[in-house]
Write a structure and sequence with these properties.
7 strands, 8 helices, 246 residues, Rossmann fold, single chain, alpha/beta, 7-stranded parallel beta sheet
Length: 246
């Protein structure tokens, strides 16, 4: 894939933290199609190698982003400044209050809150002033419910974190994309045999009459990299799910 000067990300470099699958990989593809060079990170070597081949990645790095020493080494090892970073998170942790595993909950807080904070700290000096940081959150914790105590807290915290980071990292722009259900391999793993029923339900009830895919989220993420007037904002990508009763 050869970039041309007319493409919106031509000559720019996009780092995707969690870029071996799902929303991260879809964003890497979209950024590459827009002319960017892409650097992918992930935890699984084989999946990362496959993703790199898929998008023609400039470089890759295998590490767990919640290992903050490894995250620091990755940023220290970047030879040149980059233009944009996308942080794609893991799936949510749900558990009733009496069954919360504190170690799993702490890891979830690390992934959804402290990874973005650490990435933002490293972005200073590594991201060009005209660049951006795009965070991936979610809408699933906005509705209170049994088992949603921790994910609800993180869902509420991320927009506030985004607004503050937009001030602290300025002129680097910081925005949050909050998807609802997205049809990815992660969703398939979480729902198991219930995946097809969930898809059918969403096709019937969502105002858009289809299921949101990772490409939908990626399209907005790349737009936020190129739209230099937007920062500190949260954008929902849920097909109108929050408009439905209940």
């Amino acid at each position: 894939m050869t970039a041309t000067a007319g493409e919106p990300l031509f000559g720019q470099t996009v780092v995707v933290i969690g870029g071996s699958a799902g929303i991260g990989l879809a964003t890497a593809r979209r950024a590459r199609a827009a002319g960017a060079a892409v650097v992918l990170t992930g935890r699984n070597q084989q999946r990362l190698d496959d993703a790199a081949k898929d998008v023609g990645a400039l470089d890759t790095a295998v590490f767990d982003a919640t290992d903050f020493a490894a995250l620091a080494r990755f940023f220290d090892g970047l030879a040149e400044p980059v233009d944009h970073i996308l942080v794609s998170g893991s799936g949510p942790y749900y558990a009733p209050l009496t069954e919360i595993d504190l170690e799993l909950a702490r890891r979830d807080f690390d992934q959804h809150l402290f990874v973005p904070i650490e990435v933002a700290r490293h972005a200073l000096g590594k991201v060009r002033p005209s660049g951006s940081l795009v965070l991936i959150g979610g809408t699933g914790g906005r509705q209170p419910g049994i088992g949603r105590a921790t994910i609800s807290a993180m869902t509420a915290a991320l927009p506030a974190l985004t607004r503050n980071l937009a001030l602290e990292l300025a002129p680097i722009r910081v925005n949050l994309v909050a998807p609802g259900f997205v049809d990815t391999s992660l969703s398939a793993a979480l729902l198991g045999d219930g995946l097809d029923d969930r898809r059918a339900q969403l096709r019937e009830t969502l105002p858009i009459r289809r299921v949101v895919g990772p490409e939908d989220v990626a399209a907005l993420a790349v737009h936020l990299m190129t739209n230099t007037a937007v920062t500190g904002a949260t954008f929902d990508v849920d097909g109108g799910q929050q408009l439905l009763p209940g």
